[in-house]
Specification:
The complex is a heterodimer. Chain A folds into 2 domains: 20-147 and 286-378, 3-Layer(aba) Sandwich (Rossmann fold); 149-282 and 392-418, Response regulator (Rossmann fold), CATH 3.40.50.2300. Chain A is 45% helix and 12% strand. Chain A contains 15 helices and 13 strands. Chain A has a 7-stranded mixed beta sheet with strand order 6-5-7-8-9-12-13, sandwiched between helices. Chain A starts with a helix and ends in an 11-residue tail after the last helix. Chain B has a domain at 2-115 and 133-221. The longest helix of chain B has 31 residues, at 2-32. Classes of the chains: A alpha/beta, B mainly alpha.
Chain lengths: 440, 307
């Protein structure tokens, strides 16, 4: 009996050890996703793409150096309070807690900034979130990667300058900025004003009340103003309505340039034929003609493990944006493993180091099968953006066509504004800036 | 002056689109005294169901019939599961039940058809200005907006006849006045509720198709219900013509307000920052003014308590 009992205990201990061995080879990522509600189209696409990439790494490579990626989702419905609740629920999951947070919401990002610094879990906010977090000295755990709103705004003016035949040709031109009447929409107003002053064009800002279902009066004003270009800073239903309203007043869609949150199939398809010729900035391209996308089809969807219910959305702007999120997350984990131990689960704090030392150059992008799919990325303590580049794409009536190479931001305008804003934040919160020369 | 008229006409036509949604609220309120918070969700459900069916290759007209069938099923289920257990409960209880129904219907729609944004085009009707009018007057009036106004007019006439000239319509009004009294004289309350929710479903389908064709079929369709509230306050919760007149007032005033109030305020008070985007709240200010002056709305029934 005694022997039987010891055997049972031994078996239990072995099982527990075995379980912990299995657990130790996992890397948990909690996803505060939104698959229902007003922004579900973006949520299903981006989280779907991210999960597809994680699945690809597990299926094709057996994980990262043998460490399998695990994840679960918590529905936020794009609601700040629920986002915080999901973060709290997920932060201790997995063998080393949550590795990284992808809130996909500027509001949730703002709500978590103080918490993640305490919990030592990094936030990755690609193309949204707090712009001044680009200054990593004040925001060690926040990474608004690839490009922030101010950077893309300057890239848009560069693009318009290119189309006009040079930046000097912008003098005397008129640009209307149609923006979502919210903190997000207003964020680029100071940058546009600074650029108008620098290049000699005039800019008129016209707000659209949330959600943007009705824009007739705004577009009648546009017709009255007769601008050379319209910048569209929309979100959700506002973008499609703006494109249709532009057609209604006869404003050429070839002279409309949208932000990346107004530049997905979800913005153009509802606008129908009116969207043909419309241009939008993007930090990722659409399409499945990239080795990484082919691998997702081969190793994930062919095995019935794809995340997208609607398979026609694989390769869409949002889905591919999710794949970009996946690539960055995986490469940051790999980088952290190189320093803290290959084949081991890393902590959130170690992930922070991994992101901050990430360098995805073109050679690496080629290796990953994503050359031209996303821009090169080099993060540092000083620069949590790491790129600032965007491509411009035009809707041809059926799909997005890339019409430029990567266009860089005008950092001479953006960087001083970021540093000023970040320093102000540091003063408010009593945060001493990190000395980046001592970071390694 | 030409610009003023262009804004005014555009506003009036937008107002008709608000009225389409407001009609659904009026129908249910008229017949049951319940403010149906789920009307916006029903618009979304109807539009998504219709587009989902057309995506299966079903022709436009037949898809409309099938979508109407789905709305009737929803009406029957609502009566059986939500309303029947709450007969003779206070109005606030029924109102709260419709709030719950909102979330259920929104989730059901997305669960059945997915969360993707869809385009919807009504064959032969483009959202573009009428050319001869543009050339001769310089005023741009959309073909689509005129079509929507025509559809609304037909709907109002049909509903007015239904309510005032048919036996079922009179029974609906009797139920609205007093559930128990209506039951006592043999009016089948459950049938009446099923009918009125089905008719509200039809109105939701029409509104969903029109709004979906204008803005795309997406979750934001549920938000159009928010604009129906001030329309109802101004027009009265129980009046079908009131919903139309209220819609016209809201549509025209919000557009004129959006264009003319910000520059007026800026020049009067010397404000340099960009104003505007007032369309979101301006209709509610209008509604508030009406509430102070005429709480029952322009066409609403005045509530008199005899003691």
């Amino acid at each position: 009996m005694k022997m039987k009992k010891s055997a049972l205990i031994g078996f239990a201990v072995a099982a527990a050890l075995g379980a912990s061995v299995v657990q130790a080879a996992d890397q948990y990522i909690g996803l505060p996703s939104y698959r229902v509600g007003p922004y579900a189209a973006g949520g299903t696409g981006i989280y779907g793409g991210m999960i597809d990439y994680f699945q690809l790494i597990n299926e094709r490579d057996g994980g990262i150096n043998g460490v399998k990626l695990t994840w679960d989702e918590c529905e936020t419905e794009y609601n700040n309070a629920r986002g915080v609740e999901c973060y709290e629920r997920q932060k201790k999951n997995g063998p080393t807690g949550n590795t990284v947070v992808h809130p996909l919401s500027t509001g949730i990002t703002y709500s978590l900034i103080d918490k993640v610094a305490v919990d030592k879990i990094p936030i990755i906010s690609i193309g949204y979130g707090r712009t001044d977090a680009t200054d990593g000295r004040y925001f060690p755990y926040v990474f608004p990667l690839i490009t922030n709103y101010w950077s893309q705004s300057t890239a848009k003016i560069k693009f318009i300058g290119m189309k006009e035949g040079g930046m000097d040709k912008l003098k005397g031109k008129k640009i209307v900025n149609i923006y979502h009447d919210s903190a997000y929409g207003k964020e680029t107003i100071p940058v546009l004003d600074a650029q108008a002053k620098k290049y000699g064009f005039t800019v008129k800002h016209i707000p659209v009340a949330h959600p943007g279902n009705e824009q007739q009066s705004q577009w009648l004003q546009v017709r009255q103003e007769k601008p050379d270009w319209v910048i569209l800073r929309g979100w959700g239903v506002m973008s499609a309505v703006a494109i249709k309203a532009a057609a209604k007043v006869g404003f050429p869609r070839e002279k409309m340039v949208g932000v990346w949150w107004s530049g997905a199939e979800e913005d153009t398809i509802p606008a129908g034929s009116a969207a043909k010729g419309y241009i939008a900035a993007g930090f990722n391209v659409a399409g499945t003609n990239y080795p990484v996308m082919k691998d997702i089809q081969k190793y994930v969807y062919a095995k019935g493990k794809g995340n997208m219910d609607d398979k026609s959305r694989v390769g869409s702007i949002y889905h591919n944006r999710g794949v970009v999120h996946g690539i960055i997350t995986v490469e940051a984990i790999r980088k952290a493993q190189e320093k803290f131990g290959k084949g081991k689960s890393i902590t959130g704090e170690q992930m922070r180091w991994g992101i901050e030392n990430l360098n995805i150059d073109n050679a690496m992008l080629k290796k990953l099968g994503a050359e031209g799919f996303m821009p090169e990325l080099k993060i540092s303590c000083m620069d949590h953006e790491g790129s600032g580049k965007v491509k411009f794409q035009q809707w041809d009536g059926k799909q997005w066509k890339v019409i430029t190479d990567w266009i860089d931001a005008d950092k001479s305008i953006v960087r001083p504004m970021i540093e000023e804003s970040a320093a102000k934040y540091g003063k408010e919160k009593n945060i001493a800036p990190r000395d980046c020369s001592k970071e390694s | 002056m030409q610009f003023f008229f262009e804004v005014l006409i555009g506003g009036l036509l937008s107002g008709v689109m608000y009225s389409l949604v407001a009609l659904g609220f009026v129908l249910i309120y008229k017949a049951s005294g319940v403010f149906n918070f789920a009307q916006g969700a029903m618009v979304f459900f109807a539009a998504l169901t219709f587009v989902g069916i057309t995506e299966m290759g079903v022709p436009f007209g037949f898809a409309l019939i099938l979508a109407l069938g789905a709305m009737i099923l929803l009406a029957i289920a609502t009566e059986r599961v939500v309303l029947r257990p709450l007969v003779n409960q206070p109005q606030i209880t029924l109102f709260m039940a419709t709030i719950g129904l909102t979330f259920l219907v929104e989730g059901l729609a997305q669960g059945m058809w997915g969360a993707s944004v869809r385009g919807l085009e009504i064959p032969g009707i483009q959202d573009e200005p009428i050319e001869w009018m543009m050339e001769n007057t310089g005023i741009g009036v959309s073909k689509f907006d005129l079509f929507a106004a025509g559809v609304s007019a037909v709907l109002v006439v049909v509903l007015a006849i239904f309510f005032n000239k048919t036996r079922v319509g009179r029974a609906l009004r009797a139920v609205a006045d007093d559930h128990q009294a209506a039951l006592a004289i043999g009016i089948p309350l459950q049938d009446i509720w099923r009918i009125v929710w089905a008719v509200a479903g039809l109105v939701a389908l029409v509104a969903g198709v029109m709004w979906g064709a204008r803005n795309g079929v997406q979750f934001a369709l549920t938000f159009v219900a928010l604009k129906a509230l001030p329309v109802l306050i101004i027009g009265g919760f129980t009046s079908i013509p009131g919903a139309i007149v209220g819609g016209l007032i809201i549509g025209a005033s919000e557009k004129l307000g959006e264009i003319y109030i910000p520059p007026f305020v800026q020049s009067t008070f010397g404000i340099e920052t960009s104003l505007g985007g007032i369309e979101g709240w301006f209709p509610y200010v209008m509604a508030l003014i009406f509430l102070l002056v005429r709480p029952e709305g322009l066409f609403g029934e005045k509530h008199i308590d005899r003691v």
